[in-house]
Amino acid sequence: MLIFLLVSLLASTAGAICGIGGGVIIKPVLDLFHLAPVATISFLSGCTVLSMSCYSVGRAMLAGEKRVDLSTGTPLALGAAVGGLLGSQLFSAVKAMFADPDAVGSVQAVCLAVVTAGTLIYTVNKERVHTLEVRSKAVCLVIGLFLGCMSSFLGIGGGPINLVVLYFFFSMDTKTAAANSLYIILFGQLFSLFATLAADTVPPFRPLVLVLMVAGGIGGGMIGRVLNKRMDDRLVDRLFIALMAVIIAISIFNSIRYAS
């Protein structure tokens, strides 16, 4: 039980600082310990990310912070909400293709390793990349759709891919991208949860574990919010890069273990 709480607390703290939600850490780490079936871990990870992003976004709005650009953030978030529904259906479809649940875990781990590696390469070289200034709401919806689908399928809530997209397509700085990423994650995870409940595909889980992880998510959101204000962009980037390297290593290990 303690592992679930600690993983969700630490991952959500890092997620709130960097804007990656925490699920990109929670999912591979819990897979590594093999504490629950793949579907259960994805569901618990999503609920934890939802609680953290709900607190972080709600607290920022109550404080009157203006980092979220609603003109682009809202279409992105709405697109992510629909994408979250599609991602949940995609996960169910892939799960139905394999008799062995571990095979689904292997697919997720490989996809996560590839996505994270691409994110790491971009982040290290982002100062040399010419970025865009997308303003079209229709394009924002499409981008959000892709983000929501990917995050829901992988069970990571949003993760690093959000930041790369916000850096490249919208020329956002690190902390602005983090705030907008959490806003997108909130919508995507909320609708993904609704889809899971409506389809009656909630996997078996221990209620106490869910309570502990949600508490860890909210606690991590509180701690991460405070730390984010005290850290400059360069330090946030360094933390993000370090996390990506660790996640890639864990994902590769998980993909090999699930496949064997």
Supply database-style keywords.
globular; mainly alpha; 260 residues
Provide a descriptive summary of the structure in words.
Helix 2 runs parallel beside helix 10 and helix 3 crosses helix 8. The protein is 81% helix and 0% strand. The mean pLDDT is 90. It has one domain. It is an all-alpha fold and 260 residues long.
Brief overview:
It is built from ten helices and no strands.
Structural class: mainly alpha
The tally of helices reads: 10
Strands, total number: 0
Percent helix: over 70%
Name the poorly predicted regions: none
**H-E order:** HHHHHHHHHH
Query: What fraction strand?
Result: under 5%
In total, the number of domains comes to 1
Distance between the termini: 27 Å
Reported for the largest beta sheet, the result is: none
* CA radius of gyration: 17 Å
Average pLDDT figure = 90
Overall shape: globular
